[in-house]
Amino acid sequence: MSYVSTAGGPEAACVFCSTLSAGDDRRALILQRGKLAFLILNAFPYASGHLMAVITRHVGSIETATAEELAEAMALIQKATRALDAAYHPDGFNVGLNQGRVAGAGVLGHLHTHVVPRWNGDTNFMSVLADSKVLPETLGTTYDRLTALLRA
User: How far apart are CA 53 and CA 65, in angstroms?
Assistant: First the structure.
């Protein structure tokens, strides 16, 4: 139990907190800021338009986030899915969060929810054989398309 409770070592600086104070939202891929949460493109997307709704306050679990923070994050997810639908016309979405390393969280300690547009047949041999993803546009292009729709 001693090993399990200390595995992983000290946590590095939080990428979301650093990004929030970077000063250049386009460069940081921040699509929209709210009072309690914000939308950001995933820098390592599974698909074009893969973004995240992130609680602004550095909080790592659903139970420690406030109802207001969770509500604003969900409102941003709703707004994001509308923009993604208008920009990309996906057949569906994966929306979810991973709380804790064992659950697949890539950024520990800062609660965020993924929104991934999905299309019929969007998995192929590239992801199975090469552990690679093929994206038809750059993150900058995705950023420009989505920020224009989010402002509307």
Answer: 13
